[in-house]
Amino acid sequence: MSQLDQNLHTPMVELLLSLADDKLFLGHRNSDWTGIAPILEADIAFSSLAQDDIAHASAFYELIGTVNDKNSDQIAFGRTCNEYRCADIVTKSDNFNWANAIARQLYCNTFDYHRLARLSKSSWSPLSALSKRILAEQTIHVDHISTWIQHLGNGNSDSKARLQEALDTFAPYAVMLFEEPEGLQELHDASILQNDSDFYTDWKSTIDVILNSAGVTCTCEPTNTKGGRSGKHDEDFVRSLAELQEVFSTDPLAAW
Amino acid sequence: MLSESRTNVPEAKGELQTQEVQKFPIWEVFTKKKESAVHLHAGSLSAPDSDLAQCFAREHYGQDQPCVNMWVTKRDFLTADSGENEFYELFVQWGAGLRYEHVGEVEACNGVEARDKCKELFCADKKYFTIWSCPNSGITKIDGSTDMIWRETTDQAYRLASGYSKVVRKKWEALRASKAVDDYQSEDLKDTY
Description:
The complex is a heterodimer of chains A (256) and B (193).
Chain A (H helix, E strand, L loop, with lengths): L8 H22 L9 H29 L3 H6 L20 H22 L5 H29 L3 H18 L9 H6 L9 H14 L22 H11 L11
Helix pairs in contact in A: 1-2, 1-4, 2-5, 4-5, 4-6, 4-8
Chain B lengths: L17 H5 L3 E7 L7 E7 L3 H12 L7 E6 H5 L6 E8 L7 E8 L2 H12 L7 E6 L3 E5 L22 H20 L1 H6 L1
Antiparallel strand pairs in B: 1-2, 1-3, 3-7, 4-5, 4-6
């Protein structure tokens, strides 16, 4: 099915914005490490992965544009704070602590892996096609970050303690990734998406396997708290958004 | 301009063993642009072990041009004289400053014999500069058709070493052309013209 029913446009846009906004801001935040990551090789690699995330966001903004007939730059940069749908884990400051950056990346990359896997089964073909393609790239991100987790967890007592602390710090924000975009149920009811397994359980078992191999743990519980997906953002997000919009807002109609 | 967070980077604390980083082994990476091409030396990197070397190699050398196959090996292997009896991959640098090119493989009992066989089989009538040999067991081979390397699923034109897309190049040319007119019109240059 390539046509989407008119009354599903709003829930679809909500769903796609939650994905694209997560990716845009994660890529933006991780690009802060360019030039100052702990070792040169990690610096280049992390920047390359950040570029990927922004490219993925861009592909999804374009898909959103086919639904709501807006320009993808306008969608990405031209909204007010409460119109963004990312979970605040992606903009939370990592304080330039590498363990924090790695822990956040693990949570977000594995979440995106499972999210894309679910979306790739959508009956709306433009969504399933794009998700399938990006899922292949997401697998590389998960492999990359798993390697880092194993090196930090199995490194020495110092690196292990730092990683565990970072995992604990970011766990409460990680569960906020699971806040449902508004109208998701309508997409399930219309069989645009299947709900054949528990998203949270799938994700938790994936990270548990990775973390077990590194001798560290993630303790977290699902929550019903409303946050980023409902447009309620914290100060770190507000700062990130101001930074991201700085150039765009000087001339929102400029051709790039 | 630096982002707000980057203007306040906290100082690193704790027992950071940075001298260990200096001791990381060097890894050499060979990439193949398309199936019909041969592996060419792409560059080197430093990493503590093979797993991280592969992760870094994918990002450093697998993303600046299309890449269908990638080999990663420790630099030490390439010039080692010793070794076991096995197959060796051979790389020839045909002239100073040129990239090492994969020419084939031979069975040999060590690195010296592998390179001798290379001279005989692949460099007989040709001038060459240096030869590298690498035991097959020392190479990690990544096949892009089963294990994605080059990311083609989104527009990657901005990554290409060969420059930006045609659209961006046109913009630059237009900008340069208008700059030339500006220069002409500026007072300083009117006399010259």
